[in-house]
Every structure is written in structure tokens, then in C-alpha cells.
Design brief:
The protein is an alpha+beta fold and 180 residues long. The chain is 19% helix and 36% strand.
Length: 180
């Protein structure tokens, strides 16, 4: 009984002895800036050949970028480079994107993705093996793409992701990583 009385007395003393609050301590150091809404743009280049089935798979480098299942992944094709007042300006077109040829033939750049990779592929009714050298150079070889990893919070408030320029203006701090 003495042990219980002693324990209750100790608890009573601990609860009732709280004094006034002391002064506020100094403010701690600033933390690193978060990048939750920055987004990431990856620039890749690839060739479409019969050997790779006219497609190529790009795996996101986990050391450089983290893609969440809720993020939006959009792919843009460097369709052409134009001159404006003596400066080169890239023209980026969102995928899927179609090109039409004589005889009703069509070539479509398309893609699908997971949160760990993007598969960019060609589709359409054109026979890619019948391309002239000039057509192959224009549509199959050294094709440049930008893969935009867009945070879900941004995508919810900006449903039109078809304009690469608008995307970059809305996310000016997004990192553009050129991948070799």
C-alpha cells in the first residue's frame, strides 16, 4: 500500500509542479528549398529502326528524378528549329503527333509510360523500310524528345499541357536534363 501511495504522490507532484513557460529559443537555420512543384524535363535522343521495333524505352534514372504514380508524364517531339530575329527557336509538339504522306500513308509518334520508364514508338500505316534516305533522316534517326514529369498538383490546376512553352512559363524552375 505504501508503494502505491508513494507512486500516486510522485505523479501528483509531477503534474502539479509545471511552472511558467520559459523564453522562446533562437530561430533555427533555414532548411533547403523544397522542389515539390518544380517538375523535371528530360531531353533524350533516339533512333527508330527495324532492330528496335521502331521504338525505344527510356528508364528514368532514380538518382536524378523521382516519378510518382500521381505525376503526369508528357512527351514532346522537337519537330523543327526555326529562326526568329537571328536566333534558333525549338518547336516542341506534344505526342501523339501524326505526319501524312502521299497515298494516304500516316506516321504517328506515340508513347506510353509507367512511373519508372517511357516507351516512345512509331505507329501508322506507312512502311518505314520504304523511306528514302531523306525521309529516314527526317523521321527515324536522331529524333529529340523532351519528357516532362509534371507534379500532380500542377497538372490539376493546368489541364492543357499541349503547349510546351506554356508549361515552361508556368514551371520556370523546372530542371531540363539533357541525357546522353
Amino acid at each position: 500500500m505504501k508503494k502505491i501511495s508513494l507512486l500516486l504522490a510522485l505523479i501528483f507532484v509531477m503534474v502539479s509542479c509545471e511552472g511558467e513557460r520559459g523564453p522562446v529559443g533562437p530561430v533555427g537555420p533555414m532548411g533547403e528549398t523544397g522542389d515539390a512543384l518544380l517538375g523535371t524535363i528530360l531531353e533524350i535522343e533516339g533512333d527508330f529502326t527495324a532492330e528496335n521495333g521502331y521504338s525505344f524505352l527510356y528508364e528514368f534514372p532514380p538518382s536524378e528524378v523521382e516519378v510518382f504514380e500521381s505525376d503526369v508524364v508528357q512527351v514532346y517531339l522537337l519537330e523543327e528549329v526555326i529562326q526568329d530575329n537571328g536566333e534558333s527557336v525549338d518547336v516542341w509538339t506534344p505526342l501523339p503527333n501524326s505526319f501524312f504522306f502521299d497515298g494516304g500513308n500516316q506516321l504517328v509518334y506515340n508513347y506510353n509510360h509507367t512511373y519508372f520508364d517511357v516507351n516512345i514508338f512509331l505507329d501508322g500505316n506507312v512502311d518505314f523500310r520504304s523511306f528514302t534516305d531523306a525521309e529516314a533522316n527526317a523521321y527515324l534517326f536522331n529524333q529529340v524528345f523532351r519528357i516532362a514529369i509534371i507534379p500532380a498538383a500542377y497538372a490539376e490546376n493546368n489541364p492543357d499541357l499541349n503547349s510546351y512553352e506554356a508549361l515552361m512559363q508556368a514551371m520556370p524552375d523546372a530542371k531540363v536534363l539533357k541525357v546522353k
